[in-house]
Amino acid sequence: MAVTYPAIGKKVIAKVIETSGDCSIGMQVGDEFELGIHQCGDFCGYFYHNIFQWVNVLQFDGTFPLFPDKDVMVWECPNAKNRVKVELRREER
């Protein structure tokens, strides 16, 4: 079955920018994933659960004062033993 995701709001790209240890699903520096409120694709479900609300903020043009660039956020995986750091980037469709 082919899956189509609705083009709602802005596009959010998660790019792996750093790893420490071995990611349990094999994500590596440079990997990119398009994320959204309907879409997590091949991205780690454990990590996605922690960043879902921030994906939502970026997708719907929200901001948060903790981050100096309103279009970019950086988050670390909740797996303390095998850290993966991603940059969430908002883009126009």
Structural features:
single chain; alpha+beta; four-stranded antiparallel beta sheet; 16% helix; globular
Task: Give me a quick take on this structure.
By secondary structure, the chain is an alpha+beta fold.
Major sheet summary line:
4 strands, antiparallel
Distance between the termini: 25 Å
Count of the separate structural domains: 1
Protein structure class: alpha+beta
What is the strand tally? 4
Mean pLDDT: 93
Q: What share of the residues lie within helices?
A: 10-25%
Report the principal-axis shape.
Answer: globular
Strand content: 25-35%
Low-confidence stretches: none
Radius of gyration: 13 Å
Strand arrangement, major sheet: 2-1-4-3
Count, helices: 1
How does this structure look, described?
By secondary structure, the chain is α+β, with helices and mostly antiparallel strands. It has one domain. It is built from 1 helix and 4 strands; from the N terminus they run ββαββ. The chain has one helix spanning 45-59; strands at residues 11-20, 32-35, 72-76, 83-91. It has a 4-stranded antiparallel β-sheet, with helices on one face. A hairpin with a 6-residue loop joins strand 3 and strand 4 (83-91). The chain is globular and about 35 Å long.
